[in-house]
Records
---
Amino acid sequence: MFLIPQQIPWTQQPQVFAHVADADLDCLFYGSYVTSKARTSLPDVLVGSPILNSVGLIGCGVKFSGGLQRVRLSGCDVIPSSQGFTIEILCAVSSVPSLASFMSTGHYASGGNARGLIAFGGAGKNIYFWGSSADLDSGVAWREDGAIQHVFCVSQGGSGTPMLFYRDGRLIASGTTPAVSNTPSSTFVMGDSGQGWTQSPVGIIFKSSFYRRALSAIEVRQLSDNPWQIFTLQTYDVFIPSVAGGGPTNITGTLSSTLDSISTAIQGSLGHSSTLSISLDTIAVTGSGVLNHIGTSTSTLDDVVVTFSGAVDTAGSVSGTLACTLDNIVFSSAGNLNHSTTISITLDDVFVSLAGTVAGTPENIDGTLSIVLDGIGFTSSGNSGTYTLTEADIDAIVAAIQANPKTLTVPKFLGLK
């Protein structure tokens, strides 16, 4: 038995401390935990008693009931004004009071030095980027139906660059990032932002995060499909039982292989009975030793080379029927080729070269030799024997000579004058 480690992405919310795979993820709240580049821990400050680890539709989260409620993570770095960023909120809320904050930097803000997503604009319920006097209204309201909604606010590169709003993987609004300034080294908060508004949404926030870069539309879509793939892969050990070698000497049954670009090398003896069927492209079969086969061997191949080093034996000679239907083939026999019964070859552009003796019949070829070919020439040299003329042959010769008496001199006993 041995182990094979397998790594798979998270597809559900981790219910334990988990490491984040994205180095640009500055802060993440999930379940009842918060994590940053420096650490993963429980929230270090609770205001107004939000309920941690509250069970909802897709896991656990922080449950807010409106008013002055928030959780906080301290020790966040400065965010420059030219820094692209992404704010992500995964929640299910039933009510969104005006100025309710979902996630933001947690210092007392002024002059564009904040980054956050709140509810404001319109009827006070729109998805709204808050930068403290550097704001942008999406014009689209937060849903208050208690269903899951996954919202992203993406700034392509800080002040003056495009700002995009997504919900559930779809672009819902766009504009220009307002004139934000550098943030101080401070905190991130989820819930009330600490600006004196004393408002938070009513419902559960399952995940909120801040990235120090602009996520692409593809990344937004991927996170909308699976919000938990940001965590490092889970590792599992798969147990594979080992099977001792051995088995019978021969393979009995059916061996079927359908492969591309395979090389099969056999050292020793391969014994096979029943059916061996191989359908392959570009194959080399090498037998070093003895290849014994009983039964039927069927090969359907293009551009195949079969090489035998040694002897191919079937009782000394090939007897029975050999049928070959091929294009562009050369047969070469060095030694003696013995064959009895029928050899049938139907080919185009064939060259047959025999160095030695073609035998297997008496001195002459007795029987029928039938060859049907295109583009072939036969040459015979060194043949002697007796040619017998019939009476009809002689009459034909006499008639030809009488028609052309000056072309041939013949003895008088043929009756010619």
Note: The chain has a mean pLDDT of 74.
---
Amino acid sequence: MADTTVRRLRLLARLLFLLSILSVLFLGTSTVLAADEEDSGEDDADSSEDSEDDQEDADLLDEDQEAEDAVPLAEVPAEVEQKPEKKPLFGRYGRWLKRAEKMAMEELDLWGASSTVPQGFLVGLAGWGTMRPFQRFDQDRKLVDILPILSFDDPFHDEGKFFKFDFNISGKGSALLASFMYGITDHLTVGVSTNFMVVEIKVDPIFTPGTVDYIGVSTLDEFYVVLEALGRPRPKTRYKTDGVDCGDTVLNLTWNYFRTDYFSTAVTGNVFLPTSHRADPNSNLTFGLGPDIDTGYGAWGVGMNVPLDFRLPKPVKWVSFSITGEGAYFFRSTRKSPDFLPIDTDVRDWIEAQGVDVDFFQDLTDMGSTYYYTPGPWAAVSGTLGVGPVSVTYRHGWGWEASYDSDSEGFKKMIDFIGLVGNGDDGKLIFSVSLPLTPIYLPALAQFRFEYQTDGRNTLVYRDIYGAGIGFFIPLAPPERYKLSKRSGK
């Protein structure tokens, strides 16, 4: 599949457009700390301090106000005298926050997906997202049920079906994201991210008998009796997260090695840690045994991300374009095997004698206690148009088949028959809006996100994919060049 289930749940795993706007906020909190440090070492010379603060306020006047101040007051008519500009809300904090905005935009000029966190600053992100499983794109790019309807040709040739079995899957899920990034230098950022899932999925099987009632099977319970005689346990019907399920933890390092006014690029290396929830083997959706799913890759892996950012010149510098290539490769992991039942050979032989194809029902008791699983590697390319705080992205990914290695020859045949594993691809549109919170004097930015899967092959389809996130900034160890002078205001 082009993406495993975890990629659908990881709605806020990377807010690429975020840093181009959020960098405005970095210096606001740092300068407050710088000022507080200086204040702690001063005496109680209140009158002198008040005079200096008043001078700072005067420096914030507009150019036209400064020009008028040069005219003797006696020559200025009383009716046109201008009142001094009001102090920013929250005093020194508000003043420094606004000065920091100007410095960040004009001097640092961080823009595009290749932006990194300035040296000495920590960025903390928290996000939330929701989605629901909808259908699946099959090999021919058609929307079909998530699990294929089990249907067997009529061995009695009555121009009907032997029976139909519809898993009838439904459910919903949400995800919480936590991410931290720290600027080692202005062009080198290290980070870690993880996510937590809340999932509820149910299976309400629909059994439609055909000529199978010729052999005494006409209800779902009677079908289950035959199914167990053929070595398959009854599928579980409910899965609900007990608290939260962990997702994968990803370590990353970003190097913004080239940046100009109109072009910037970077490279990000990722290491995937196998911290995610692994589906109960006896309720695993991939095996058709129930609704439980992995909430991550569940294996060690490495990945890379390379964005290329372009920006238009003035007066439309707020329009940018990004092209990003990414991919990942994973290593083999050990998983616990499902508990399949022994086959009642008398029942199997009798059903086969009626002309029913029972090749799907292989003896799987020879699997052993474990099998080996390797998530399929994947690659993707995306293009983004950013207009101020709004961005639109189209992403297309390609995935290669995951590997299931077992001593049982029938195990792989069963997985192929169910049809949830294979090479595939998918495309989706991503809409994002980022809103800086400095107008309400918060050193943070909020982002809202919506995704829509447009097409695909051999991949699950989700709908109602919404996400929201907020980022805050902590000046842990900013260098002197990022601390504004308290007296000069520069």
Note: The two ends are 55 Å apart (CA to CA).
---
Amino acid sequence: MLVSCRPSYEVPTESPDIETKAATEPYSLDFVQINNDLIDTYSSQDHLKVFPFITNLEVDGDNNSKTLVLNLSVDANVSDEAILALMSDLSLQISSEAHMQDFRFTHSTGSDFGSFYTVYNYHYIIKRGTDVFLDETIKAGESVPFDPSLDIDTLREQLNESAVESQGEDKSQSSGS
């Protein structure tokens, strides 16, 4: 009788070395990492179902001037409401990414975008087709003009409700004919 031996693997039980930087230490975000993480997120099937109209997404920034720049392009036929919903979700994602890199930033909630936008300027350029839809800079500390309660989960629920309602209307119209 043959007996095989399998190596056993142990997962380290040590907690990761996570530190909050001193309040006086300068902020130093990795904008390439934020850009890559956002591209991964918005390329996922989960986000593509809600935002299939994104044609280009780029994030860059400058820690010295404390400015984040978002370049976003969407299809030409996208409604204003859909773009604003996307900007709400993107602004939440950016805040979350900043929080992951520096715990001095508070995490966004359903009622605010966290503290990232109190420290960094937020310049966004949104193109719909070839036309510029928005090109604005929100200075650090100013209110972000999007709705922090519109995250991907809320938007997905709204889309599902809308789909159910339209299916109900289709059935009532076809049975009434």
Note: The longest strand covers residues 54-62.
---
Amino acid sequence: MTEDPAKDTKATSIRRWILDILGIGTPVLVAVLGWYLSRDIEASRLQIEQNAAEIGRVKAQSDLLSAQIQQRIEKVQVIKDFLEALTGKDETAKRLAIKAVLIAIPDEAPDLLEGITVGSPDADIAHSALDARRTKLAEGLFSSDKSMRLTALTALRSGWRGDPAMVDIVARRAQQGDPNSPGVIDALLFLNDARSLPEGDDRAAVLRVAQGVKGTDPAVAQAIKDLIARLK
């Protein structure tokens, strides 16, 4: 059986047409595939970076929590070690214990020593050491160094919120600066956390300072607003 020449010609034309289309389309196809692959690779890279950042954030939080727990354990151990001497009748031992506590856990000392030194001949030693600590914290809170301010604010919030003398010192220092300066804002944040607030002229002055604060981030603005409400 002889093949139809017309069929052969038609088939050849179709093959040529397909090859021509493929020849033209291949670069386009490669470009499209390349774009999709690049997009997927970039998306995967961004996801990996986000995952790494999240892992880093969680690890940092975990490390911070571990450090805080360890600090609490160490503080409890200090209290345990010196509690007998602090509450005993041996005045020499008590004097040494007071000094040790003031050095080891200065920011917990006000609450710990409250009542223990009442009527004791060592009361002056404790009061002098606490006054020195108050002065140092106030200086740190109004320092031009951001890390020193943060350290002081953290310490104040940790152990001095219930200390009226510390509250009065911070309140008076806050009146002397620009309401929008970092030190004054940190001072107001501490005062908002304090269990009690200054009275009389100091209270009115702190209220004026708080009302003069402008343009802070929402969290700080809310804290200042809460303080103003407490002062009124």
Note: The mean pLDDT is 75.
